[in-house]
Amino acid sequence: MIIVLKSQSEDKDINRLLEILDNKNVQAHKVNGLDSKVLILSGDTHKIDPYSIESIDIVNKYIEIKDPYKKANRLFHSEDSVYNIKGKTIGGKNIALIAGPCSVESQQQIEDIAKKVKRDGASFLRGGAFKPRTSPYTFQGLGTAGLEYLKEASRKTGLPIVTEIMSADYMDQFVEYADIIQVGARNMQNYALLKELGKINKPILLKRGLSATIEEFLLSAEYIMANGNDKVILCERGIRTFETYTRNTLDLSAVVAIKRLSHLPIIVDPSHACGRDWMVSSLSKAAIAVGADGLIIEVCEDPENAVSDGQQTLTPFCYKKLVKELRVLAKAVGRDIA
Amino acid sequence: MIIVLKSQSEDKDINRLLEILDNKNVQAHKVNGLDSKVLILSGDTHKIDPYSIESIDIVNKYIEIKDPYKKANRLFHSEDSVYNIKGKTIGGKNIALIAGPCSVESQQQIEDIAKKVKRDGASFLRGGAFKPRTSPYTFQGLGTAGLEYLKEASRKTGLPIVTEIMSADYMDQFVEYADIIQVGARNMQNYALLKELGKINKPILLKRGLSATIEEFLLSAEYIMANGNDKVILCERGIRTFETYTRNTLDLSAVVAIKRLSHLPIIVDPSHACGRDWMVSSLSKAAIAVGADGLIIEVCEDPENAVSDGQQTLTPFCYKKLVKELRVLAKAVGRDIA
Amino acid sequence: MIIVLKSQSEDKDINRLLEILDNKNVQAHKVNGLDSKVLILSGDTHKIDPYSIESIDIVNKYIEIKDPYKKANRLFHSEDSVYNIKGKTIGGKNIALIAGPCSVESQQQIEDIAKKVKRDGASFLRGGAFKPRTSPYTFQGLGTAGLEYLKEASRKTGLPIVTEIMSADYMDQFVEYADIIQVGARNMQNYALLKELGKINKPILLKRGLSATIEEFLLSAEYIMANGNDKVILCERGIRTFETYTRNTLDLSAVVAIKRLSHLPIIVDPSHACGRDWMVSSLSKAAIAVGADGLIIEVCEDPENAVSDGQQTLTPFCYKKLVKELRVLAKAVGRDIA
Amino acid sequence: MIIVLKSQSEDKDINRLLEILDNKNVQAHKVNGLDSKVLILSGDTHKIDPYSIESIDIVNKYIEIKDPYKKANRLFHSEDSVYNIKGKTIGGKNIALIAGPCSVESQQQIEDIAKKVKRDGASFLRGGAFKPRTSPYTFQGLGTAGLEYLKEASRKTGLPIVTEIMSADYMDQFVEYADIIQVGARNMQNYALLKELGKINKPILLKRGLSATIEEFLLSAEYIMANGNDKVILCERGIRTFETYTRNTLDLSAVVAIKRLSHLPIIVDPSHACGRDWMVSSLSKAAIAVGADGLIIEVCEDPENAVSDGQQTLTPFCYKKLVKELRVLAKAVGRDIA
């Protein structure tokens, strides 16, 4: 870490700062430039609160050099992380295809769609049992019953289940029923939940918050990993910008950045990113081309009558066509779709 | 609600849409304009998922007319909500002043600062016992001990306590120790937590999420109210924009909007909004002038050595000066500071 | 267009509104819903200022139904626009590759790089002679000399020239020297310039403004087309968001949207979007996969010594490798690279 | 400036970088920290392109220490700039009130409103003769005739004129008719125009671009000043964010920041920032409280029939009431309204 001092800083004030640092077991090497004085720090620099240092009058800037995340950092784990989940893989050369409805609506519905997405190429089944809805007056999901329906659909098709948790209160059920536990965008910084997920041994699909920076996203993964669970799958699902034509703005450059900064697999959710069914296909292709490790796509039999998110949902017919095109594309960029 | 159809829609498709609506107990009045066909809906329109309707080919736009929040809506509750909390008020003509350190660090620290902010004009004491930190490796708060220190500081000064909850697991402790329970910006859409807070009888200070729209903010308040607790205090604390000079961008127009849309009191947190101590004073004045019902400001004895957020924290000396100026200003805009 | 009235509107106020509309030659068809009254308009609705209508007390919402752009609208021009520029095409099945340095620095430099990018697959040469720089103290371009160097490089290689205009004062020179005239992101809403460009007969490459919505972007194209020049090429080059890791956020969903909304070709500038050379290759592939009609990429011999934008610039070696990979990808999505 | 090198940088690569710097007449002082190597630069550092330096493999970060703007910088001009314009002042203790319609519509209209805003307390008259409109099909202003009407209104009332220029082609007319020449938000980075405005001797009202950072805003002022005209007045008018309830988000923290960073006066345009007439009053008060040097407010006789921007425009009745309240408020914060 580096502290840039104001050029007119006086020695007595600098000495006081050195003392504050020394009390925190941080050593400072002082350098006089022509235009500025600079302190180069070493030691227990993680104990320093940058904001407190910048509150000191003589301090111009405090500059972080090291990334604040460690376990998620590729610097200390150069190989791509690859997870094997009930015989299916996420990470590595293979591209994982996750598909299913926004919400579980009934046993029949989820089983039917599970069979279809499996037939059409998906390796994982998604479906929401607990739904985070902006309004308290809209459908909140079937809850535990939804988890049971998913489990049964998984038993019949062999597809591992991806489903969203909203509170650690239901952790036992999720550990029993889900194969990958999803944390939604709105809970990306629900640290109490992340800590609990760090204590279990099950892959976590962590969605990027609507206005989370790449660094904050990796730090949320770090919360899970620092608590003991290193099986984190990241998911870019669009960020909030001024553009209103699309629901969110899919940030594919984040995929490129994260592949370089971290060893964790990162998949893309084009459905929530754009909110329009006719965009899903093109954005899925772009995600594969840019280097994503998988796609999570909303598919249901009857989007018009869906209780949630119909506008962005593909029919099985469209999904089948898309997967076929993705196979060609994956090959062109040196990836496989199992 | 209104559905605008594409101009070339055919009758058979329109009839199919009318059927879908009818199944949901929604009546549609059809009107033919010159350029477009329009359906005006009545009945159980809240059961309709707008995204599902927009997924239908012949639909051009689905337009909401009514606000989706009810209990928080001024339309059905024209008087300002005013809460009396241990003899202090929030809402109405009076401006509530909440002050204290970012984190509770020790019994001594919190008692000292409590006495000082009380002396200087604050009516409520703030302090974090459980801290939502971006990195898992930074100070996470004293936890339960912090709550106890706050309670003791309250006992000695008479100031009611405002402190942040991060998980419903600690609800009992918060009900016992806190007078106002704060929900941080990162948890604004932690619906599991909001529902639990709806079941207790204690004022909730709900902070706006970093990228939450005004409507989403009011819907999060609605989550608490719909579950039974109508004592919600809103807090604007800056939104995330492209500007990097300030930590966030304080959105004072949101205060004006919310005073019109809702009867709930809304206060402003200038400290977190700007992240720079020398801005706090000017932004506090602007908040009063724009019509805010209170201010929550970080004050601590020794910002340079604070374990968190030093940069944006006022010393008691500066806070005292600010409150003096705020009294003059409040009077000029017809408000009181008790 | 539709006007939604407040439910409590009185007849005398509605009649006054009808009069205002009638004065502007707009007919209103009034419909009474259960919850709201609605006016459906026809006639000269483009003469209405939405903001003025919304300033009327009884008006709840004013809703546009028709897109405000006409000549750029695919609705009235269903075929893709394709331009032939000195034997090279932009638009249609072919993907146009534009490459070259950020700034023209010397005759030697631009000729050398022109030969190399041609050899490596580019069909068009880019290079800045007039440079829009954030600071008045940085290199502002060689000006007219730069245009002459570009022309000479074009003469020797046969590559048509793409270069940016900053003021209509130099229009004659640009008409003489350039084959495609670029309007930079900062000038996307410089309407005086757009109008002048509408009066010439030369393709215009219009870059999206940093915070321009898709609709505003198409309306800026409309400014050029409405003034007589219908050869507009759109360019997505990243929008400004809260993310700071990348210079801007490349918005590839805008490409998908624009291909549906408009018949104009749209290309992508990955170099300016990300500002990091190692991202350019992946983002270029994503752009092709998503359906872009071309790529404009910064290539120079010696990025480290470039007078501007070195960080995002590829060497000819990297560009050659990229084009090879793009050819494979283009084929996989049914496109050609000539 | 500081260059932070990657920890594993080798000497031969560092020496090559030192050579590149030396060629640009920049000296580098090398310091070895424990975790990183750092170069502290002196000499002609403004000749360095940060992006080119960051394109070098061994470079981790390039850090600017000095502000890139000089003439606009308070560091070199500690006193507030104050301009006297036909006997009225902008800057200093006085708060300037600028008012008038969005567009000049006729001689009668502008004279009537000029008299009224003068009577109600305004010191300057605003009105658009050349209008930057998003669509080419909406009213574009009366042009030169509008300037003449403004001049006549000024002659009759004594109010100096503020009006927007869109192209340097009309510079002579603006120099003749206007007292303050406005540059609109969309032209904030129209550098060709800024350079021309730097060559005249007339105050320039420079509006902040919709997504301009504070630093970019000051650099645009610097463009005018570096070309010889140091009479720049800045204007905060709202930035573009995700919030859609307001037209833009008024960024009052930018006012506080700019008062510290620069000596230039900064005023606020609440009308364009919010786009809603009933917000203008509260935001005007907040602007005064936060420290703005003036307000530019849209006022017209008949907002409902205005050809542009009716929704955000006050009637003279409301304006009069507002000015009365602002006088009280200005006094409370130690400012005057002449």
TrEMBL record, chains A, B, C, D:
Pfam families: DAHP_snth_FXD, DAHP_synth_1. Its EC number is 2.5.1.54. One of its GO terms (biological process) is aromatic amino acid family biosynthetic process. One of its GO terms (molecular function) is 3-deoxy-7-phosphoheptulonate synthase activity. SUPFAM superfamilies: Aldolase. PANTHER family: PHOSPHO-2-DEHYDRO-3-DEOXYHEPTONATE ALDOLASE, PROTEIN AROA(G). This is 3-deoxy-7-phosphoheptulonate synthase. It comes from Vallitalea guaymasensis. The lineage of its organism: Bacteria, Bacillati, Bacillota, Clostridia, Lachnospirales.
